[in-house]
Specification:
The protein is an alpha+beta fold. It is built from two helices and eleven strands. The longest helix is centred in the first third of the chain and has 23 residues, at 2-24.
């Protein structure tokens, strides 16, 4: 009988050890978007397109005592046509360039966290634009306030990287540069 009790105690301890990382994972969802912007150049002027709504995302993270210790998964999705420049003709050219009718979502999926410091994360993920998936390396700043985690950063990409042609206008006399900068500042809140 003592052997059975000792075995039960050992199994219970092992069960608790194995479950502790699982229990520490918490589910988060995007609750606020401070900035979601694409910036670029053209032969006429520099430009920005800013997302007006249409952003969602989920994450599974480990946060204890106000410290981020792990991210098991994280996605961020944006409606391609949520990006607005303030000029309808530019928006139309941009949507055509990224095939927004055929591929209405732009998505980031975290694939690996390489390092977490008290204020920044080095990670790898997949960025999907116009159905083309590319690996990207990110350095992202973060802060924790209560049950919220805010992520901010910038990522340089190119149209060509995603097998896309930079848009043109006025019969090709105005050309968009190949280089783009994605800027973001999003907050994920703990799900209830």
């Amino acid at each position: 009988m003592k052997k059975l009790s000792a075995l039960s105690l050992i199994l219970a301890l092992l069960w608790g050890i194995n479950l502790s990382p699982v229990l520490a994972q918490q589910s988060y969802t995007v609750s606020k978007v401070e900035e979601m912007k694409v910036s670029g150049t053209s032969t006429l002027h520099d430009w920005d397109m800013v997302a007006e709504g249409g952003v969602s995302g989920q994450a599974m993270m480990n946060i204890a005592d106000g410290k981020l210790s792990g991210i098991q998964s994280l996605t961020l999705t944006m409606d391609a046509k949520a990006l607005k420049s303030g000029k309808s003709s530019m928006d139309k050219n941009a949507y055509e360039a990224i095939m927004a009718d055929k591929f209405p979502k732009i998505t980031f999926q975290l694939s690996q966290v390489e390092q977490i410091t008290p204020t920044a994360i080095k990670a790898k993920g997949k960025l999907i634009i116009a159905g083309n998936s590319r690996d990207v390396n990110l350095e992202v700043n973060y802060s924790i306030k209560g049950n919220q985690v805010s992520f901010s950063g910038k990522q340089d990409i190119t149209f060509n990287q995603f097998a896309l042609e930079p848009p043109t206008a006025v019969f090709g006399t105005i050309k968009t540069g190949n280089e783009l900068t994605l800027s973001f500042n999003t907050t994920y809140s703990l799900k209830n």
